[in-house]
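User: Hi! I'm working on a homework problem where we have to compare a predicted structure to a textbook description. Could you give me the structure for the chain below?
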Amino acid sequence: MNEIDIDSSCYFIYQNASLNTKSEIGRAKFTRQLNKFTNNAAIEEKCEGKYKSFNDVIKYDDSTDAHCFPGLWKGGPPMAPVNPGYSNTAQSLKMHFIDSFDNSTHNLLPTGLPITAFSVRMSELWEVLLKENFVFSFRNTKEISLYTSIEVEYIKWTRSFIQNVTQWESVAINEIDLASLSSVSQLRKTIITELVDKVKQFYEIAKAKMDKYFADKQGIVVKWKHDFELKLHHQRNNLYQYSMKRLNNVIETKKVFNKL
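Assistant: Happy to help. Predicted structure tokens:
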């Protein structure tokens, strides 16, 4: 993930929060969890020396920046009235947020920065977050670490797959170069058949390695197996099409040179 040089702070807003979340002990526990997640993410991003706690990344005070909303309905719907405490809490949060613009601790609105510019900055920040959509498909940094480890293995499987096909392709191109023009058409049919067989053979080798890797895995990792199977399947199709195009180009080039 790329770093952006923007001072930031945040609020955590809860609805229908438990008493534990509202309590000082509960908020302190949540802060410890944030620090743990931050530390794990920093290790993953290789910047653990710079970021040791959540507050090193985003300013947050669990005594003032955690706000708990009551339920919207006072009782059970559909006959229950709207809970007035909900609107009161929303108004209180809105005023607290506005007051924070002039709060040097939060620094939501740096000195000299108009609200319009602040709005633009928020839009730019949101764009940055959207570009990191990979992160948002995970629940925590541990899952990101697990997925990354599978990606490393996947690269090994596909690298071997691609190398094997490429080596065979080089041999096939050499055969085309040495063949007479009269035999090229028949050779092309033979090579296409071989290409189908070789891609299938090397694909199955890579697939067997993948199946072996996932055989003893549990939990969320198993759910990702299908994703990597699809990726490997697409890799097989792309590799076949690329090799077919390259071999056909070699054959056509040979025909053109023989006509000159």
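For your comparison, note the following. The chain has nine helices and two strands. The first helix runs from residue 19 to 22. Good luck with the assignment!
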